[in-house]
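Input set for joint prediction.
Command: fold jointly, output tokens.
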Amino acid sequence: MNSAIRAAVRYGISEGMEVYGIECGYRGLINGYITRMDNRSVSGIIQKGGTILKTDRCPEFKEIEYQQKAVDVLAAYGIEGVIVIGGDGSFRGIQDMKTNFGYPFVGVPGTIDNDLAYTDFTLGFDTAVNTVLWAVNNLRDTMTSHERVCIVEVMGRKCGDIAIYGALAGGAEIMLVPEVQVDIAAISKKIIQNKIKGKKSDIIMLAEGVCDAEVLREELKKRTSISLRTVKLGHIQRGGTPTMADRVLGAKFAARAVDLLKQDKGGRVVGIKNNKIFDMEVGQALNTPRKLNKELYELVNKLSQ
Amino acid sequence: MNSAIRAAVRYGISEGMEVYGIECGYRGLINGYITRMDNRSVSGIIQKGGTILKTDRCPEFKEIEYQQKAVDVLAAYGIEGVIVIGGDGSFRGIQDMKTNFGYPFVGVPGTIDNDLAYTDFTLGFDTAVNTVLWAVNNLRDTMTSHERVCIVEVMGRKCGDIAIYGALAGGAEIMLVPEVQVDIAAISKKIIQNKIKGKKSDIIMLAEGVCDAEVLREELKKRTSISLRTVKLGHIQRGGTPTMADRVLGAKFAARAVDLLKQDKGGRVVGIKNNKIFDMEVGQALNTPRKLNKELYELVNKLSQ
Amino acid sequence: MNSAIRAAVRYGISEGMEVYGIECGYRGLINGYITRMDNRSVSGIIQKGGTILKTDRCPEFKEIEYQQKAVDVLAAYGIEGVIVIGGDGSFRGIQDMKTNFGYPFVGVPGTIDNDLAYTDFTLGFDTAVNTVLWAVNNLRDTMTSHERVCIVEVMGRKCGDIAIYGALAGGAEIMLVPEVQVDIAAISKKIIQNKIKGKKSDIIMLAEGVCDAEVLREELKKRTSISLRTVKLGHIQRGGTPTMADRVLGAKFAARAVDLLKQDKGGRVVGIKNNKIFDMEVGQALNTPRKLNKELYELVNKLSQ
Amino acid sequence: MNSAIRAAVRYGISEGMEVYGIECGYRGLINGYITRMDNRSVSGIIQKGGTILKTDRCPEFKEIEYQQKAVDVLAAYGIEGVIVIGGDGSFRGIQDMKTNFGYPFVGVPGTIDNDLAYTDFTLGFDTAVNTVLWAVNNLRDTMTSHERVCIVEVMGRKCGDIAIYGALAGGAEIMLVPEVQVDIAAISKKIIQNKIKGKKSDIIMLAEGVCDAEVLREELKKRTSISLRTVKLGHIQRGGTPTMADRVLGAKFAARAVDLLKQDKGGRVVGIKNNKIFDMEVGQALNTPRKLNKELYELVNKLSQ
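tokens >
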């Protein structure tokens, strides 16, 4: 996200704007955690994980009196438009500011599990999957003993993209995602077959939205009598030096978001589709139905022989 | 590249083909360095840099008698089509095999400097730029002494993409690419201005096709009296564990290449444009004029304030 | 471990020995998984995690009839001495071979949790702690939201060294090791105090031998009403490219082990004490009482203010 | 170095001291770049490369009037003792402050090339060699084409330790250090022999103090007709996230340095010998003759078969 913050600040300034940083998300906005930013404020941050502006939850921002407070604070600072980096929840705030106050907020998709269907990729996804690959590399190194099957639980409550891309790039043998009904009998069979075929190790990439890794382990152990390891990558996936792709994407997203504010176009979110940056109305973005990347899903299965 | 090899083998087998590996490129083809491959031959290679099939140069493959020898060898093995991973030079061989013998070769773009204009990205580019970023991170850590300006020479004889993406994602202050005429006076001025502005460190990203880092250092020192460091990343950029993006791209490219051979379509190369895999006639691909990514180039300049 | 294997092979050959590799530990020995090795057999393995010779459990090696079988196999191959890389369990086999058959086995300490008290360091420990640090870096990046306390569960059933070194080098605020009685009230107090002091994030480094991370989380939540994250690093700690220190240590250990066999000194294990390689009788090594590194433990507490 | 700074601050405070940070070395001291530090000043720095206190050269500190100025500044701040992290040059300042003013300065050895003979290891050495190994890994991946011999030039003007440890841990075939007379005929012979033996790739680890990589390349090419690559790692070796060993060493060094100041023992430097922290008189430290680690040097040669 720091790449997007850096780009928003510098691109905004180069377009003649004054730029402010709001810390801790909507909570910080309501409470006036706002500071002026210049080109130097964002020096040396591009390689850092996390965000220099911090994040926080703010469930009360759903209520109109808190939104009103935000409008008042922004007016006091003379801020005429806001860029929000986040996911579903943050985007609803953008919509409310448009609907209730006609106040221009624009959104940049920043969720590591790539769960915003209107855009091909979200900020942080590339970094997260590369972190998953690092962990899979480590696991492969040592999967030479009895327990040759390992379940790797990765992020993704509703969207299995980390699991799919992680499985394709990590060479996982089996992959379970929330978008596809689990066929436990087929998985058990594949584990047994891989053992017979002489595969040295099996990695099962499991999106957290399917079930807990321990539950899957118990079930598979019962059916196959093979003992399995589990690894839950958890919050390790959230941090780490961002990859090139995420830094470039952050800069492009931010530049487009600044352009939107310059044209006073609020209530919109930016995204990338077919390798082109675009923007669309936030409500429409939120209503875009999630679809499984079927082609990639099937490619994983073909390649995991 | 190993991801593409793995995918070609397994996808090919899943499509009912027999698959062979040709080692050491065209030289190996002429000399019959050919072995049968099965699913197990490509186990545990996806995370490895380099290529398990090795590479070699073979300038004599331009001559028709060597091409004829290749055709004979392939006939002897009963091989009906060949997938070639490489750049310009390798692709000319594909064209010759089509024109002179009607023999189906298909090409996968595999050059780290992204210098094939017909495709948005080539295999290895994402990994190479991430390696450049790693080096830039290390350099930034220590640029706190007198010599605050550092020239980082990266690959790219005719194509400045590593320098452009590296500069954008690495937060470089200045960038020199072969596609744009160097304005040494402007660069000198920017270095001086950055010093006055209080910038802690300057990184100049230099594509090797522009000039040698030492030449630039001398010239800038003469004009600014500021001492500069140089770092030439050289062959370090070629290796390393491939990134997620390169592994996924390799798998997709290979699957398309197998599909082409299955349909007996030779003389074609695969590529990615607007995030979609496509294929085109090899001669047309080789004639696609190289263009600077102007938008990205200008974004770097705006963000390097 | 591959560094030790490479060194044993090449150093042995340079001393005029014939060298064989036994795969899968004692199980492989009993079953004759034995191949001749030359200098080329260990090319290109030094940077790989895991072991090219694989590992396996073999509880039946405690029984004399299986030990007898091992002796028979070794005699059939004309093998006059064996180097074993492992921990407690493997070392007991060395002792038995000495006591029951006078057969020279020597041991190299290879356990990632540094739980062999007779040596300052074991092979794999440096790599494992560096992996822990990598994970801690990632976690710190994102600990900017509500859940600012994170429990990181690391390996170490009886020995807290990964936790102690990881805490010192990772800047953890709190550390729990099996050698020291847990004072849950003191920990709760420290968490609250750190929050009051304005610490942005707390990391609790927990050795698995103390308790499960979830158990600790529940207990601390009950006492402090602060929500905590947990991350169990698990088998990720076992793999990964070995660090310089582990590769150098492996080479030194292996060279000494070869020297011992050359002098026909079996029933001994090698180690490092005060930065010097030494060897001692295996029984004595196994009886060395484990001691907490008190100085380091207290330094962590002083530095975690 | 940040680990040592963090430890000095927190350990000092825990011992009841007031702690100040002096930026930019002796130059900053003379110019009063001094700020009060508390436990929070050193939060979140342990994983960062470089130093938060910056460095600078200050050749004029050799002159007594500048030393007098330093004494005056320190007196004005009420600072009673100073910890200096650095090498030869910085240590001479410590000696002068003792001899000329009886002012207590203590030294922590911080040079990446391990060139201080009185201590087994200096701060930064472990990190630097691990960075070298990373580069060697990348190079090995791609050394499959014609140019199979690569010269890697690493730091070390007078001390070849980076080259020796890098060669041992990186599996280099040949190693050139300033402590040993180069036998160019023997090296040429070994390159040819390795080619004949079928070695896939040769890495020559060259300490910069021996000669420039280009000079060696020319000479070897003339003698062997084999084309060689060169890579100069340069300043990349200086940065990067510090390893566990360096962080732990930094903390231990700093704690001992604080203890010395507490006892008002100036003119001393800390070090590590046989894995034990010790301190000694600075003049004696500077006069300790440098010795080649012969055992390790020979081990490299034995293992590079």
